[in-house]
Structure formats: C-alpha cells, structure tokens
Amino acid sequence: MNTKEFKDKALEISLNCVDRQPKDWITFNDKINTKLLDDTYESKFVSLKKNELPILDCNLNDSYLLITTERVISIINNKYDEIYSNDFEGLCNDFEKLNYKNENSQHPKTNFICLERTDKTKLLAIIDSYYPAFFSKMLICNILLYKKKGKWFLNPSKKN
After folding, report:
1. CA–CA separation, 139 vs 34, rounded Å?
2. Do β-strands 34-36 and 79-84 pair in parallel, antiparallel, or remain unpaired?
3. Cα-based angle 87, 91, 96 (whole degrees, multiple of 5)
4. For residue 15, what is the enclosing H or E element?
5. Of the candidates 93, 68, 96, 94, which has an alpha carbon nearest to the alpha carbon of residue 83?
6. SS3 of 123, please?
C-alpha cells in the first residue's frame, strides 16, 4: 500500500473507533486546537521526510503534536522528541491520572499522551482533552503498530 492509501486506511480505522465525526468532537479545552490535516500541510516546526504525509496536529501555547504516516513528533517547551514505529512499545499510563477530573470535579483542558519506546524511554505529548485525545491515541497505535507488526491496533470495521 502506498503512503496515501496507508494514511486513508489508518484514518478510516481510527475514526471508526470514535462515535463522532471530527466536526462534532467535544473538548474541555476553550476550543479545539486539534485538526486533521490534508496532504499539502506544511508544519512551521518540522520538516517532513520524503514519502511521509501529515495526519493530525495540535498546536497549543507551549506544545505541538504532529502525527504523520511515519512518526509521532512532540515539542513541549521547545524540547523536540519523536518516535518511529520500530521504537514503539505501546501507550503507557504514567500521566493518565492527570487526564481525569481534579479535586474540584473539573475536567482538564488538555490531556497527556505517553508513549513508551522499546528501550523504556518515553515520549510525552499534550493534546486537547476528551475526543481529540482519545482519537489520537487510537490513531497513534494504529499507525505505529501497523508499521511495526503489519496489523492494526483496533479495527472495529472488521468482523470476527
């Protein structure tokens, strides 16, 4: 499958994991900063490699997340980090408790996504809370696991 076909398939499968289309997503942030990208998108922060297509980004005040067909890139407070499929072990829960209601029963505006590498180091990304965060986790796992193992993380459209 070529890069464009892969992007389209990863989006299709990941969108099937969410019960709303992106235009109907809800966040607890002041506004949704997360967006699906067309193939012509050019990041102000990252140069894409040949045969790499952008899929999703979230540009917040102090952080930037870009998910492409090849990698996940996170910039937090000007610190750059990235992960490719061959280094991807899975999602980790190190910051998950920060994604839930606080003592005042308020939902956080943003969520943390933590990815563990095979060497046990971690990539941290920040994204709009609720729908954008959940979708992004599904998308990341689908892309990185398919690239690494040749199978989708979750494929709700596939009948068992």
Report:
1. 13
2. unpaired
3. 145
4. helix 3-15
5. 68
6. strand
